[in-house]
Every structure is written in C-alpha cells, then in structure tokens.
Amino acid sequence: MKFVYDFTEGNKDLKDLLGGKGANLAEMTNLGLPVPPGFTITTEACKVYLDSGQEPAALRDEVSAHLSALEDRMGKKLGQADNPLLVSVRSGAKFSMPGMMDTVLNIGLSDKSVQGLAKQAGDERFAWDSYRRLIQMFGKTVLGVEGELFEDALEAAKTAKKVTVDTELEAADLKKLVAKFKKIVKTEAGRDFPQDPREQMDLAIKAVFDSWNGDRAKLYRRQERIPHDLGTAVNVCSMVFGNLGPDSGTGVAFTRDPASGHQGVYGDYLQNAQGEDVVAGIRNTVPLAELEQIDKRSYDQLMQIMETLENHYKDLCDIEFTIERGQLWMLQTRVGKRTAGAAFRIATQLVDQGLIDEAEALQRVTGAQLAQLMFPRFDESAKVEQVGRGIAASPGAAVGKAVFDSYTAVKWSRSGEKVILVRRETNPDDLDGMIAAEGILTSRGGKTSHAAVVARGMGKTCVCGAEELEVDTKRRRMTVPGGHVVEEGDVISIDGSSGKVYLGEVPVVPSPVVEYFEGRMHAGADDADELVEAVHRIMAFADRKRRLRVRANADNAEDALRARRFGAQGIGLCRTEHMFLGDRRELVERLILADTEAEREESLKELLPLQKKDFVELFEAMDGLPVTIRLLDPPLHEFLPDITELSVRVALAESRQEPHENELRLLQAVHRLHEQNPMLGLRGVRLGLVIPGLFTMQVRAIAEAAAERKAAKGDPRAEVMIPLVGTVQELEIVREEADRVIAEVEEATGTRLKLAIGTMIELPRAALTAGQIAEAAEFFSFGTNDLTQTVWGFSRDDVEASFFTAYLEKGIFGVSPFETIDRDGVGKLVRDAAKAGRETRPDLKLGVCGEHGGDPESVHFFHEVGLDYVSCSPFRIPVARLEAGRAAS
Ligand code: ADP
Ligand code: MG
Ligand code: MG
After folding, report:
1. Handedness of CA 93, 96, 99, 100 (dihedral sign)
2. Which residue range(s) make up the domain with 26?
3. Entry's NCBIfam families (predicted)?
4. Stated pTM of the model
5. pLDDT digit string (tens) for 270-292?
6. Does the active-site annotation cover 849?
7. Does 520 share its domain with 498?
8. Is residue 657 situated within a structural domain?
9. pLDDT tens digits, residue range 141-158?
10. Beta strand pairing status for 397-403 and 419-423?
11. Into how many domains does the chain fold?
12. Are residues 211 and 356 in the same domain?
C-alpha cells in the first residue's frame, strides 16, 4: 500500500484517502495554481497507527523519499544550517473540523538554521519570529505544554517593551523570547526542544495522528455525526512566509458571501503575519478589498484564482492564501460552509449560471437548512434597545441570559436557562459552551473567525466582531456604548441575520419562508424576498423529482388546512383520541363506567354525531385527498381523572360525610383500569375488542361522514386504520365488524363509499407476520414511534431523560433512535414487513406516520425501502418534501 502522495499525484475526489485539505491542495496544484510543493500522508497510515499504536513500517522510507524529492525540487534541505527548507505539518481529515486538529508551522528551524534563515531572508527579525512561533506551536500541540504559558511570556515581552502588537518586537526581543520559550518547554515537557529537523517533523506527524483522538475532536465528531474511524491525513507543505514585512501577509476569503450568497469580495487580510494570525484576532485585519490598494498585482491574481475555483468546483469555496514579498501562494481551499439562506440562494444562482442542474441543486441544500429558515425572527417593529452591531455570522434570533464563559453556559443551560455565550473571541475550548448556548456573541473576529465558522456549522445563531462591546470575561460583564453594563445573567437578544445586539428580550415573528408556505407571501412578485424566491424554486425541483408522497399528521380541520397549504397530499394520521377530550370527556367517562349495555350504548349514541361532525370537517378540508383515521389508541385511564387527586377527593368527601357515590365509582374504575405498563396494556385494537361498540361507533361515524360529504358532492377518501395490531386475527375480527357497518351505511344512504381498511405496523410481531396481516389490510402505516419503543424495549418517556445522554456520549448511538430511524434494527423490520406485505398484496399501500416521517435521514430510508408516503406534523412537511426530492435525485 502506498502511504504518501505528492501534491501532484492526488485530486479532489480522493478525500477519503488524502483528507479534504490534501485532496484540494492536489487539485489546486493540478489546476496550475501557485501551491507550495509538498506531500500528503494518507488516512490509511493514520488508521494503521491508531489501530496498532505504531506507524506502518513502510511509512518512514516513503516519507524520506518524498522529502528528498521535495528538497531536490526546492534546492535546500530540511533544516539545512545555511539555507533551511522549512515545512508545515498540517492535519486534514475527510471532513473539515475547524480548529480541532493541530498544525505546526516552520518545522526545520533550530538554533543553527535560524541564523541561516536570517541571512537568506536578509531579515533577522523575521527568522526569530518564525522560530518563536515554531517553539510555541510545537510546544503546545506536539509536546502538550499549556499554550497560555507561551502567550503570557509573549505578553510579558510586549509589556516590558511597552508595545501593543507583536510586530513591534524586534529581533533582539524575539531572541530573548525564544530562550524563554525553550525554558518553558524544558520545564513543562521535561525535554529539550528538538534540534533535529527530521525529529521535529516525525514528532509533529505523530502528534497530528494523535490529535484525531483528542477530546475536542471526538466531541466535534459526535456533534457532527462524523464517524470515529476515518482517521486524518497529514500534509507536509513547504513554507511560504507572510511575516516577511509589509509586502507580505496572509488572508482568508470566500468566493461569495457565505451569509447571503451574493457574489463579491469577502475576506480578511493581515499584513506581515503568519498562519492563524488572521482568524485568531491577534491584530485587526483589513477587509480583503483593501488588498487592492496594498498589492494590486496579487489582488488581481487572487480574484482570477477565485473565479477559476468557483467554476471548477461549481460552488462557493473558501480559501487561505499567503503573500510572500509580492508573490501569491494558495494554502487551502474547500467548498465553503454557508448559512441556510445562502445555501438556497447559491444553489439557484448556480443553476442560473448554468454550472449545475436541478438534481445537483437539490444536493446543495438540506431539510435541516430549510427547517432553520422556518425559525421565527425578531419583530422589527418591536420597541428595542439596540446596543451594538457585529457581523451577521450565523442566522437566527436568539434570546438568553448573558454568560461569559463556557462552564457557566453549560451549567445554566443544564438547569433549563437559555443563555447567550458572550466572549471576546472563541476558541476550541469553548465548544461545550457554544453547544449549550442559544446563541454566541463575540466582540472580535470576522466571518471566518472560530465563533463564526463553528456556529454556522452547528446552525446556531452567532453575531461576531461586535467591536463596540467591551467584553470583560474575567469580571463576567460587558460594557456597551454609552457605558451601560450587562452583567452575567442579564437578558440580551442577538440577531444572527443582521448582526444586531439588543438589551432585554425582543419579541419574535414568523420567518418569511413560513409566510410563503402559508400563502401570505408570494414568489414571483416584484418585491419578492430573494430567499423566498430561491426556496420556491428549490421546492419545485424537489416536487418534480420525488417519488414519496408527503402527508400530514392532523387531527382537525384547521391543522389539515395548514398542512394542505404546506403541500400535504393527505392526512396520514388523524388521532381520534384528541376528539374525546375537552367537553366530551364526561361522555367518555360515562362510556367507561357503564355497568349495563344500555348505558354504554346510550353514551356511544351521544358520541356518534360529535365524531361524525369532526370527520365531515376533516374530509371537507382534505377534499380529494386521502385521510387516514386511526381508531382509538391510548389506554382508557388517560380519559379518567388522576388517581391521587381522585383519592383525595373521595377521602375528603367521606370525612365530611358528603355524598360521593360518583367519585367512588370513578375511583373504582380508575383502580380497575390502572396498569403497571400502560404502554403495553389495554390499548389500541385491544380496546376495540373488549369494549363492545366503541370501534363500531367510530367506523359508523367515518362512514356516515363520508356519505354526507358525497351527498354534498365532495370527494372524501377515508381510510380506517386499526392501531396496535399484533396478529391478523385481531384485525380480522375488527375488520369483519367494520365491513358490516360500512355496508349498512352504504345501504342506508345509497352510496358506494370505498373506505379502505388497514392497520398500523407498530409491534415487532406485526412486522414479523406482515405477510399474514396483509391478507386483512389494504394498507400498512408503520408507527415507528411505538415500533422503536417495542423493538428496543425503551419507554420513550422514561429513557430520553434518564440515560440517553449517557448513550449518546458513549457513542452507543450517534442520534436518538426516536429522532432518526434505527436502520439496522427497526429499519430492518420496516423493510422486511414492506416486502412481505407486498408479496401477499401487490397493491398494498405503505406509509409511515410518527416523528420519523419528518426527519431528513429517515425520509431517505423510507424512500429506499419503497414506501409510498411519509406522514409528519404540518410544519415538517416542506422538510419532508425537500428530502424526498433529494432522496430521489
Ligand atoms: P487549519 O486546518 O486549522 O486551517 P492549516 O493546516 O490550514 O490549519 O494551517 C493553519 C494556518 O497556517 C493557516 O492559516 C494556513 O494558511 C497556514 N499555513 C499552513 N501551511 C503553511 C505553509 N506551508 N506556509 C504558510 N502558511 C501555512
Ligand atoms: Mg486552514
Ligand atoms: Mg402507536
């Protein structure tokens, strides 16, 4: 196996092997762009190292061979005393993990070669600056020395010299600093800073491998659902220097605005600086546009390259570059992260530019992004007290109590508080706090700062670089212009779409995307919102592509109408139990308590017209579209008063010697119906079988409602769904009775109703015997909530709060199986049952209702296994439509 690839050997499609950075460095090299020469050690080598604790045997020789080739090409040897070749050792996994992995620059410098570098460059200050950076980075990331020790020493040097920025330190100061840094290394790491350049390089490579399993890297992977076994590649790249004086510098840029998608010049540039300086907020950067004044030639070349990259990758790219004495070098590119809104806009812009087609456009957006765009925003007409404005780094409207450190953010959010994490700037240590917070506010850094990049990745609201805010993390407060002080715990509101920061709680309003789906805002109008326009077009692409139909879970006409506006093609789940609550509770109580058949029939008779009316309204709202009605599902005790409360009432009445016959009867019934595990008790079809007349009444109400709609020239398409069936016999009995009732109603009204009768598949036994069950069912609707509970043996209400976090932390599952369908277990049952059912009855209609129907990943699964539709809550419908379209393209 080959473990090392020269940049000229790879390409952008080799991300698995070369990591994102390596693959794209190779791609740029082969595009003829100015990339400093180098090579990439593969993820395979990393995997061998992580598995066995040792680098593969062949690796050392391969690295040596590539290093010699690089040395020949550059005409100097690594760390050569009079003219050293310097390299960076850079991590780069398949997925970018901002700030997670460690990069060491200036490898090859030593006490000797620093002199050579000074002579070669004719700049002593530069050489010593590079050397101190090496010791600092190497000490921190390779030898594990606390980074703050170096930073404090650097601060001290500046203070001693009475200067504020590092560029004001001179060669002599830096020499002293190097000595100090070496001492720090010696005391903290218990060894000298290695003077042998090859040893430096090898140790750095190993450190990159090791950093794959650093805590922060692991946390980030869990968050982003990146598999833990991919490993990272390592890039060895010859150094170019942005710290060689004012005609040098380093910068980052996007080929278009990652917040709006607009084309233009977006980036930050910093003169006389190296590497991370731009994003670390060490000195204030200038907007990229100013580079045109500073160095027109490099600027023009950069613009040219950015265009080349966009046309080549057919997407927004972000880049890192360095200018060394007027010569431009490309150090990194990748398809850039973007806000949800920008993703939609960019996808349609690229279609218009002819760069991508509709199917590809669908791959450029996600249901999660659409969901994000449907979040409410701040009410612009509200009375607000704006106290600052930063960069709109990641959209959303976040309100919460200001906290100034990650620890407090986590602690407070655990106790149910909403918090905004306020920092001067964030670094990887803040990740926990960023996850816990509603939003993130920083006073330093641009669109490419750590806070901005990570927040966008997490879809979390972020305002960064709000410079007029004075953040004092030590004293846990921030001072806003005018002098007002925001203390820890004070409520603030931040708008990640405008960058505005407000004191207090600002009210929120619905998003324009929701207004659009609701039909209150239109695409195509002159003043149409750009975002709405893009969403409209993408939804049309998705609807054209998708095979899965999307239905709604809705229990009343109002929800049904909204679902229809959102694009629902029917109702997949109408829960009749919701119709038994409120005023009707008393009737239901009487039904449950009935001692005689006559009493029972009496209350059923009273319920019938009420149920019927519900269905008439529902069929009218969904005229022409299927409406699946689930017969009563939950255990009866849910309709009775709480046992403790009732006991108290009875006891009180007794002690006061007041009449309490009814309460007593009720209490007896509650006791009779009390179950240890109601979820596994008397519910669903079991109720229908033991309470005579209950399901009959419901079926009659459905049939009569359908007949009434027909008589009114409507087009009702009712489907009767029997819940919690475990065996075909249950279904057969209920079905026989239902068929009889429907025939009766048809006879009485003289209409053919064509009601379909089907079942939920939500018990493992039902799934396992799906072939038999299909004999008696015209459709299956997979109830994946209950199926997940019963397959895993989890009671949802109990487990989510108790041990799920532990399970997620331990990586037992990457995401709750109630959120995304467990493909291997629950999913297997769905797949097999669908197949068996269709073998019995080829035209069996298959759907899914329950939470998973609106979950992006699960929608893809349901598409794969050939279901006909998914059903989800009205608000998730656009997401399901989009994902169904993506799954099919
Ligand atoms: P990250 O993945 O954190 O961005 P990088 O490997 O890209 O880490 O490197 C960190 C910084 O060092 C970046 O700003 C990058 O541009 C810079 N850098 C990396 N390699 C070189 C090099 N060979 N010459 C100059 N600067 C470099
Ligand atoms: Mg980088
Ligand atoms: Mg169920």
Report:
1. negative
2. 4-238
3. PRK05878.1, pyru_phos_dikin
4. 0.81
5. 999 988 777 666 678 899 999 99
6. yes
7. no
8. no
9. 999 999 999 999 999 999
10. parallel
11. 5
12. no
